[in-house]
Write a structure and sequence with these properties.
The protein has helices spanning 24-33, 35-41, 69-77, 88-101, 118-130, 144-157, 169-193, 196-205, and strands spanning 11-18, 47-55, 59-66, 106-111, 135-140, 160-164. It has 210 residues and is an alpha/beta fold. Strand 4, helix 5 and strand 5 form a beta-alpha-beta unit. It comes from Aquamicrobium aerolatum DSM 21857.
């Protein structure tokens, strides 16, 4: 079960995105919806978000942590998608390292493919789970190999896996909002708000599947 957290505390969240060419529609959608995370906790919610993205030949970068939607959108709109393979292993490794500097309360990963060794990813995900850093994997599309890998990452890190497409932006917005509420207030905050996305998130965090 995910640890409880004082609802008045702040939260640090890593937003990781596939910025390869196949991920362009996902990037555009995430850019338009990221405000939901900040809106969910309000100006006094204390949410800080770090953008991590990969693209091209071995390029994987992390921004500074920012505390409002305008700053995050400015970072995202400067980045263009480029051809390349997935680098989720680097994302998970970065999350482990970042957690050594300060507690990371959640990792959100949004992408449509996994082109890496699932066993290596599982090892990193399991280590994050032991540290109380859940990964919430949002998969665009129906690639079966990606689903298998992302479900396993979510399971081992004690997070959640969710599917979305271009017609489910409202549902994705609700779930991103729920992750932000969890990152800043824990299970109690999700229970108190009690929206559909919150209940779905709680089902995963309590060790079950909806």
């Amino acid at each position: 079960m995910a640890p409880s957290k004082n609802s008045s505390s702040s939260g640090r969240l890593i937003l990781a995105l596939d910025a390869t060419l196949s991920g362009q529609p996902t990037w555009d959608l995430a850019c338009s919806l990221q405000a939901e995370m900040f809106d969910a906790v309000g100006k006094k919610g204390g949410l800080s978000v770090q953008l991590v993205y990969f693209r091209g030949f071995g390029e994987c970068r992390a921004s500074r942590f920012v505390d409002d939607t305008t700053k995050l959108k400015e970072l995202m709109t400067r980045i263009d998608c480029r051809g390349g393979q997935t680098q989720i292993d680097k994302v998970l490794s970065h999350a482990l390292k970042e957690n050594q500097h300060g507690k990371v309360d959640a990792v959100v990963y949004i992408g449509d493919a996994v082109e890496e060794d699932i066993d290596l990813l599982a090892d990193k995900a399991g280590r994050l789970g032991m540290l109380g850093v859940p990964v919430f994997a949002f998969q665009e599309g129906h690639d079966r190999a990606a689903e298998t890998a992302l479900r396993e990452i979510a399971r081992l890190s004690k997070g959640g896996w969710f599917r979305f497409d271009s017609t489910s932006s409202a549902a994705l917005a609700q779930l991103l909002s729920a992750v932000a509420v969890f990152a800043t207030g824990g299970l109690e905050a999700l229970e108190a708000r009690g929206r559909d996305g919150d209940r779905l998130m709680l089902a995963y965090l309590r060790g079950g599947r909806p």
